[in-house]
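Input (DUF2218 domain-containing protein):
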Amino acid sequence: MPTSQARVQTAEASRYLQQLCRHWSHKFPVENTPEHGTVPFGEDRVCTFEAEPDALLMRVVTADPAGLTRLENVVSDHLMRFAFRENLGEITWSRAA
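Output:
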């Protein structure tokens, strides 16, 4: 399945991971700890988060490339909203071959 990932430099990775997971837990069966989170947006759409001391790693997987772009945008937009006090710069996603 098409996969994409992004690494966002921030000292607040765990906080953002938990905020994102809490936000989506109202609609999806989210699993998370302060260091790892999984958001199953559907049977064929999943986002995972890993909090490192200096970065938030995000990976999205979908059944089709168009869905991958949409999911990248949804996740990026939500992170930027939660991180409005911090300039995270541009979030760059890289596609797995």
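Helices lie at 13-24, 65-82.
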